[in-house]
Amino acid sequence: MISRLTASAALFAVVTTATLAFAANAASDQIAVQLAAKAMPVYQLERVVITVKRASKPIN
User: What's the pTM?
Assistant: First the structure.
């Protein structure tokens, strides 16, 4: 009989291995990454200035 801890560790190992394999394949496809970067529009937002007035006395 397999313990719950061993089953959880085996499931974690399988999921982690599959995730790392998917990430490695996705990162190696540079052509798709370049095409996706060109296809996405870039929006430049205006600069925001935040002005804060400090209290002269600490509030307790």
Answer: 0.43
Alpha helices in the chain (DSSP H): 4-28, 30-39
pLDDT digits (tens, 9 = 90+) for 10-57: 999 999 999 888 877 766 677 777 777 777 787 889 998 888 877 677
CA distances from 32 to 7, 21, 53 (A): 37, 17, 49
> Torsions phi, psi of 34, nearest 5?
-65, -40
